[in-house]
Amino acid sequence: MFFVKTLITTFLISLTILSASAQLVNTENSRKEKREGLQGLISFSYSFDKTTTDITRLQNNIGLQYTHKKHTFLILNNVEFMRIKSLDSKQDLANSNFQHLRYNYSIKDSSTLIWELFVQHQQNKIKYQDLRLVTGTGPRFKVINNDNISIYLCPLFMYEHEQEFNAPNELINTHVIKADFYAVLILNLFNDLTFRHITYYQPALYDITQSSAFEPIVDFRISSESSLSFKFFNDKLEFSTIFNVSHDSRPPGLYKIETFNNKMTFIMVKNEIKVRF
Length: 277
Description:
Blueprint: H1 2-13, E1 37-50, E2 54-68, E3 71-85, E4 91-93, E5 96-106, E6 113-124, E7 129-145, E8 149-167, E9 170-188, E10 193-207, E11 220-232, E12 237-248, H2 253-259, E13 264-276
Antiparallel strand pairs: 1-2, 1-13, 2-3, 3-4, 3-5, 5-6, 6-7, 7-8, 8-9, 9-10, 10-11, 11-12, 12-13
């Protein structure tokens, strides 16, 4: 077993780290097992992305979870420091951050059905996103949960407000009602080795501002993330390699102007270390 862990560790650390940030935030990797009291984690990650620009990124994530009987609160704070170097050798800082609050209420003692409420604030300069505010609610169904496999299906609805960069000194505001479907798969491969996968699908349903350019369902975001994690030191330290693909069918106007692309797709691979308490 020690040889297997050593081999896996060597393989993961040797992976090249490429990264591009996504607008959908995955909260699943920050959830802790449900037990009474306060739990937390602190994670750090580093990535380097080389395309038409060179992007160096340092990320810090802090998460707290508090559970009391049927009530669970999850608070996340994420900060990214990014240095961007373009082909003309100009450098710019494009930091991003998000804050996320999620409340779960277990409707049954078995936790087969959980009701979720969430609020999120987000800013991401590299994605032409000056401000994104999201709030939503819906059920979380536990389909399977045993020592080897867990599956959750979650059909939620949410309100999204965005202020996006469209041109110099000009912002575009959107107010949209969206569906927020996501599915979670967790496989416990060995005692300390876990595979997690989650897919988010967020189609727009209704535009509150009734914009003439709005197209329901056709306007959507989808993100899929897989991670392989293993734990050390009595589960206090966790090392993960994460692969993410995200797609936006209707990206910000300035992005389309600068890239001549009507779709926005990103692929990301990164290594992450988490300290749990």
